[in-house]
Amino acid sequence: MTRHVLHVITGLAVGGAEMALYRLILAFRDSEYRHTVIVLSPGGGMYSRFVAAGITLIVLDVRRAPIGDLVRMVRLIRTMRPDIVQTWLYHADFLGGLAARLAGNRNVIWGVRTTDVDGGCARSTALVRYLCASLSRWVPHTIVCVAEAARRSHSLLGYDASRMVVVGNGFDLSAFTPGHDERAALRAHCGFAVDDIVLGTLGRFNLDKDYPNFVKAAGQLASRYPRLRFLMIGKNLDADNAELLRWIDATGYAKRFVLLGERADIAICLSAMDIFCLSSRTEAFPNVVGEAMAMGLPCVATDVGDVAVLMADTGVLVPRANPDALAQGVAGLMALAPAHRRQLGQQARARIGARFTMGCVRARFEHIYEGVIARGEL
Questions:
Q1: What's the domain count of the chain?
Q2: 123-162 per-position pLDDT tens digit
Q3: CB-side exposure of 90: number of CA atoms within 13 Å?
Q4: Are 227 and 106 members of one domain?
Q5: Residue 233, strand partner residues
């Protein structure tokens, strides 16, 4: 019997939730479940990837017509009669969940993807999160948290803990296979020498990613390691970002930094690195660390969200917002012989293969879907 899962997501920008949804749908390609996605805002860097994969999209523009699009969603859900309505991120949880219940569908799964509920965010987001906490005992059947840290923080915020389960991100090892030729080509493009050691980071320019932390640590390391280079990849991590350039110039080693901006060839970008660094001040279950591990990279990461659960003893964990500690963590890996660093990276890849594959994630969601459909409302 074919089952229909209707997803509702805030938008299709390049981000963790969007990538997780994309991978999840692909993982279900040969199953009894078919998937449709309602997107609450147009555009986004992931839009073309969803289209190219043949994923059915229904694009709304809730900012321009919130009431009209809410009514449209109610009608769509009544017409489609999906077995599951699965929502991603606060605004989609609120609007998609409300639309589902108004349409008479009780099989609602919310998705909680953040941990930092005390940090700064838009007032509208804080309000929607408060409303979600208030409605969490009525709207969703199940609340899927991407990390144990997300479950804890939202329980304290007032979300119904009895409805929460934790499902971390998953990764396709076949999509993250190191390629010598691709690595050599990108390193040559960046001007890296064969014997340079490349410390890389990847993610959009955002306060949560704490790039001042990365840049300050890099400045400390540059004075100690002449062959160390710094590769920064992600949206707005480019030469047009005057603020970022000021931070880099202040290190005195601007020529050691390469900024590539946003790119789609993430696996190739990671292959050009020798050590991966996550400098974030907050995360839940960061895709980028799992991707780096899948590529066989040793990682240095701040102790945020469920990073410690993901890396275990395959990488170096340091306190957040502490450039000295971040530099010391990288220095610890630099002190290892290259063969030892590669071995640590292989252990990281093996951990992803054993614990965090898309097969594992699909199995968890199949179990959740079956339970929601079978039990209906709690």
A1: 2
A2: 888 999 999 999 999 999 999 999 999 999 999 999 999 9
A3: 20
A4: no
A5: 202, 261
Domain match, 273 and 155 both: no
**What distance in Å separates the CA atoms of residue 375 and residue 377, rounded to the nearest whole number?**
6
Pairing of the two strands 33-39 and 3-9: parallel
CA distances in angstroms from 372 to 99, 255, 297, listed in the order given: 18, 55, 38
User: Is the alpha carbon torsion for 264, 268, 273, 279 positive or negative?
Assistant: positive
- The two most distant CA atoms of the chain are separated, in Å, by 64
The domain containing residue 325 runs over which residues? 173-355
What DSSP character marks residue 171?
Answer: B
Q: Could you tell me the two tokens for 311?
A: 């890396």
What residue ranges in 92-203 does DSSP mark as E strands?
Answer: 108-112, 142-145, 164-166, 197-202
Provide the 8-state DSSP code for 338.
H
Nearest of 331, 315, 126, 141 to residue 224 by alpha carbon: 331
Whether the Cβ atoms of residue 89 and residue 8 lie closer than 8 Å to each other: no
Which contiguous run of DSSP H or E holds residue 179?
none
Q: 126 by DSSP, 3-state: which?
A: helix
The pTM of this model reads 0.90
Contact (CB, 8 A) for 311 and 303 = no
At 313-370, the pLDDT tens digits run 999 999 999 999 999 999 999 999 999 999 999 999 999 999 999 999 999 999 999 9
Contact 84, 6 (CB under 8 A): yes
